[in-house]
């Protein structure tokens, strides 16, 4: 089942380190089957507030997502971004293709 690395990144001034990070990040994802689903996208806010932009990277599973984030190659370039862009990053498992929210709702009703 797919897993995702999702980052909510705040606006930042252009910097050579950020360009270097962006130039190198794709190569760190490839060994773990990662690919961008959303990159540097401005969002359309329909509820609440969301300053900045979003990045979504899909991986084959949580093991690959964790292995990428913890990999020496990614850890080497990560400070190029984090020194200049504030943000939040999460790793999250996806749901199966046949996921049905009504089953989750039924379990919630039964527990209530």
Give an overview in words.
It comes from Streptomyces lydicus. This is DUF1330 domain-containing protein. 40% of the residues lie in helices and 26% in strands. It is of the alpha+beta class and 112 residues long. The chain has a single domain (3-111), classed as 2-Layer Sandwich (Alpha-Beta Plaits), CATH 3.30.70.100. It has a four-stranded antiparallel sheet. Helix 1 packs antiparallel against helix 3.
Q: What number is the mean pLDDT? A: 95
Annotated CATH architecture: 2-Layer Sandwich
How many domains would you count in the coordinates?
Answer: 1
Please identify the top-level CATH class.
Answer: Alpha Beta
Sequence of secondary-structure elements: EHEEHHEH
Number of strands: 4
Strand order of the largest sheet: 2-3-1-4
State the end-to-end distance.
29 Å
Main beta-sheet annotation: 4 strands, antiparallel
Shape: globular
Helical amount: 40-55%
State the oligomer: single chain
Radius of gyration: 17 Å
Segments where pLDDT lies below 50 for 5+ residues? none
CATH topology, what is it called? Alpha-Beta Plaits
The total count of helices amounts to 4
Strand content: 25-35%
Backbone structural class: alpha+beta
Can you tag this structure with a few keywords?
Dimeric_a/b-barrel, 4 helices, 4-stranded antiparallel β-sheet, DUF1330, DUF1330 domain-containing protein, alpha+beta
List the helices and strands and how they pair.
Blueprint: E1 3-9, H1 16-29, E2 35-42, E3 53-59, H2 62-70, H3 72-82, E4 87-93, H4 101-111
Antiparallel strand pairs: 1-3, 1-4, 2-3
Helix pairs in contact: 1-3
């Amino acid at each position: 089942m797919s897993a995702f690395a999702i980052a909510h990144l705040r606006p930042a001034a252009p910097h050579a380190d950020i360009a270097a990070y962006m130039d190198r990040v794709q190569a760190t994802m490839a060994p773990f089957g990662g690919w961008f689903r959303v990159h540097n996208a401005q969002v359309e806010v329909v509820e609440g507030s969301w300053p900045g932009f979003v990045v979504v990277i899909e991986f084959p599973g949580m093991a690959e997502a964790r292995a990428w984030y913890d990999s020496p190659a990614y850890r080497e370039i990560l400070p190029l971004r984090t020194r200049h862009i504030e943000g939040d990053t999460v790793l999250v498992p996806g749901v199966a293709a046949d996921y049905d929210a009504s089953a989750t709702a039924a379990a919630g009703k039964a527990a209530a």
